User: Fold this.
Amino acid sequence: MFMEEKASLRNINFKKLNKALYAVILVVGLVYWEEILWSAFSLKEWMNIGIEPPADQILNIAAKTEMERDAKNDAILVKLNASLAINPVGEAVFLLGEYYFGKNEDKNALAQYEKAIRIDPSLADAYLRMASIHERNGKTAESRKILEKGITFFNETAPKFVPRPLEDAPWQSNVKAQARHEELLKAAKDLKDALRKAKRSL
Assistant:
């Protein structure tokens, strides 16, 4: 058996095999030349810095930073409008509500929060802000109504993300479901706490 394998190895033309291998490497190199150059010179830097976020997120981050320094700065509005021009259904919709909320422009703030909830009904902070605006304007019934609307949404949505046993779902999917489920339960609790507080103030 050993002698047969040795004889078969002798029949292999290693020179031709090497030439074929080099040809494959050359073709791959020519096809992926730009990627190879990028890997050689930029991969390390990319791994250290990470992927740059989309342009609208960069503007949102800048706006939030500005809000922390001066919530009424008009530069915030410029950044958020620029972000909305890039992504009309992004985080800037809610942040614009925060901008108007900080300036006590309740009508504009409510319009933005309502729009944000239409885009993403799981924005618990938008429900809380809207309830707060109605409360400070003496509209207690409206405040309770928006909180109850949010609670209903979270109570109906949370069960959809109850994690399945690991044997029935991939580990990663189960973890994501668990995180989402906990997030929705927390949101429901926050709104219920706000509603109880509103009822006690009557």
Notes: Residues 171-200 form the longest helix (30 residues). The domain at 47-120 is CATH 1.25.40 (Serine Threonine Protein Phosphatase 5, Tetratricopeptide repeat). The CA atoms of residues 11 and 72 lie 82 Å apart. The chain has ten helices and no strands.
